[in-house]
Amino acid sequence: MATVTLKPTKVPELMFEGYSITPDAFAGKTAAQIAALPGHEGKIHVTIGDFFTVSGEAGATAADTDIVIAGDCTRVKYIGSKMTAGTVTVNGNADMYVGGWMKGGKIHVTGNVDSFCGIQMEGGELLVDGDAKNHVGCAYRGDWRGMKGGTIRIRGSAGNDIGTFMLGGTIIIEKNAFIHVSTHAEGGTVVIKGDVEGRVGGQMVKGEMYVLGTIKFMMPGYKKVDRVEKEIDGVKATFDHYIGDLGERHGKSKGQVVYANLYLKAA
């Protein structure tokens, strides 16, 4: 696999919209051609070379291309947006929309990410070693189609609105989350290994949620039906099994009503 290294040279005055920082856009290009790829800083048309030095050459295809960003990208948005293959590693923090709409490949951020990481993601893997802010794997504002596939793993904590309108895929938060988990979801799996403040599964139609810590405020639309032994993400435990959201419409499969499932680790 060919490696392209980007090294930040200056901090954008506003935010750099780095939508061209993907293996798909880099594939088949030299360092000079990659540096000339477009971006935006507000309304101003800029290039990758305005903010990064570029070394190395890309592979012939996205799958053959590895991008390494050797520095902090706190003010760089859309890294890995819409990528279909290849890898991107950010050795530092990243701004909003990391891995947004991605369909394949792998992104690894060694620091923290801002909001909307993995928005409407369809495939691939997004790994964040630090924390994420809000709207992980959710739908775009005003849309009803959230994450459809792939895996998002946040090794730290996350904010609110995780998996809103989620349709498929898996989101794992290894520490705590705030509020609104799987709101309006119609599929997929969300795992919170720490604690959640509340509003877990509100208006959820189907899919699964696992909380290995505590839920401070349980949604009233969930009913405990049994206690089960399950293994999730390498953790075997006893869970209280709830179904819901009972206030929502639910379809049927083989004559049985299909509910969302909430598994809360038993105390």
How would you summarize the topology of this molecule?
Layout: E1 2-8, E2 16-17, H1 23-26, H2 31-35, E3 38-41, E4 44-47, E5 52-55, E6 65-69, E7 76-77, E8 87-90, E9 106-109, E10 125-128, E11 151-154, E12 170-173, E13 177-181, E14 186-192, E15 196-200, E16 206-211, E17 215-217, E18 223-232, E19 235-244, E20 252-253, E21 256-257, E22 260-265
Parallel strand pairs: 1-6, 2-7, 6-8, 8-9, 9-10, 10-11, 11-12, 12-14, 13-15, 14-16, 15-17, 16-22
Antiparallel strand pairs: 1-5, 2-3, 3-4, 18-19, 19-22, 20-21
Describe the fold and architecture:
- The protein is mainly beta.
- It has helices spanning 23-26, 31-35, and strands at 2-8, 16-17, 38-41, 44-47, 52-55, 65-69, 76-77, 87-90, 106-109, 125-128, 151-154, 170-173, 177-181, 186-192, 196-200, 206-211, 215-217, 223-232, 235-244, 252-253, 256-257, 260-265.
- The strands form 4 sheets. A 13-stranded mixed sheet has the order 5-1-6-8-9-10-11-12-14-16-22-19-18.
- The termini are far apart.
Tally of DSSP β-strands: 22
Q: Roughly what fraction of the amino acids lie in strands?
A: 35-45%
User: Which class best fits the helix and strand makeup?
Assistant: mainly beta
Nearest-angstrom radius of gyration?
A: 20 Å
Strand numbers in spatial order across the main sheet: 5-1-6-8-9-10-11-12-14-16-22-19-18
Query: What is the molecular shape?
Result: elongated
